[in-house]
Amino acid sequence: MPREYTEAEALAIHHDYWESNRPDAAEGMEVPELVRWSEGDSLEAAACIREQGFEQYAMGLDGSIGGSAPTDAQRARSEVVEWECWAKFSLPLQWIAPRTEELWRLEYDYYVDFYLPCMKEWGIDLYRDDIPSEDVWVAQSMEGQVDLWLPYDLLHNPPVSDHRPKGLTDDELAWLCPSMPPPVLSVSGG
Known about the structure:
The chain has 190 residues and is mostly helical. The protein is built from 8 helices and 4 strands, in the order αβαββαβααααα. The strands form 2 sheets. It has a two-stranded parallel ribbon with strand order 1-4.
């Protein structure tokens, strides 16, 4: 069962999370006020990004956004716009709240026991020899290591469209095999 937060606690977590994820180009800017927590999808954030002139679109119920890459000249502005829009239509509180060792272990288990086998079942083999052990991954996660192994990162090089089975859209694949665990797994009472 997810931990219950007061509104003040939730807003403080929101502020701290987006403050710590501020792109360099947004230095000095205030963290945008929360408009609404997302339910794990990216529809409102994607619409917000499009309204600012960037051709982004929602990909799936896992919170991911995909779309056309900005030009080098647009990159800094794109990073600011994405940060502002995601802060306004934030990832679920359960995904951004501080995690315990137990929650990191649940996430690792989700990737290894559900996500990787699900993707393989649909013809996309993301298994690699360099997947860290659970203990190593949890330790790296708790230390805040930035180059953390995440299985869905392998989909972006080459893009998921190069991997997916014929006839299956990116949205369908994201629905069948969400790359993020359900929010209910991410924060518990305590």
